[in-house]
Amino acid sequence: MLTVSVVVPSRDDADLLGRCLAALAQQTRRADEVIVVDNGSTDATAAVARAAGARVVTEPEPGVLAASAAGYDAARSDVLARLDADCIPGPEWLERVTSAFAADPRLAAVTGGARLVDGPRRLRRALPALYLGAYYIVLTVTLGHVPLFGSNMAIRRDAWTAVSGRVHRHDGLVHDDLDLAFHLGEGRRIRYVPNLPMGISARPFGEGRAFLTRIRRGFHTVFIHWPAQFPPLRWTALAATPRQEWSHDSSVAVASE
After folding, report:
1. How many domains does the structure of the chain reveal?
2. Hey, how many other C-beta atoms are within 10 angstroms of the C-beta on 205?
């Protein structure tokens, strides 16, 4: 049995965090631990997390990447699942995450899609489908493999340990999921799993300035990896790099032809 930790970075999201933690408590496969990373909150984020039985990790350095990295560093399980404080995972989310890893020892990370849990009903499936469709298409071409979507993803702890010293955890403009995908994708397999149920908030789509900032951060995250990771150079390097797989018994990475 693979153990699983859930990492939830949060800053001043106490009300929505409570909703997220309640959904995690209803999972068909319960988490072995839930870690809420308090990223400098001034509200009741830490109190809400503790009341729900989560372990609170404090990360004073602002930024989602710094917060997520602190959570991964603190986690004790084989698999590290990641979502945002305003997410509502479906009841089978963790069961399907762990099943994907158990079924394929070559997997270093999995990711999935989403639907909106608020906002206009007619847009709750269409809007994230359009956004994530463009996200996955553009970045699959850029990376040479599937990217990660931070609101619905999970990685093996040993895969995180292998790249944790290379991520740009002190750059507040970097998207943590995309930066992690750059490093994990070098010799490790990332898979899109279509049936990972996840509800996300419409907040990022409702504020024009926030959405533009998100796009700007995406370009910044890509460009800081250039020229070494310029797409044709990265594709060539990936084609010559053997993938890794993880033993179910020891979780030790070994080369796979």
Report:
1. 1
2. 17
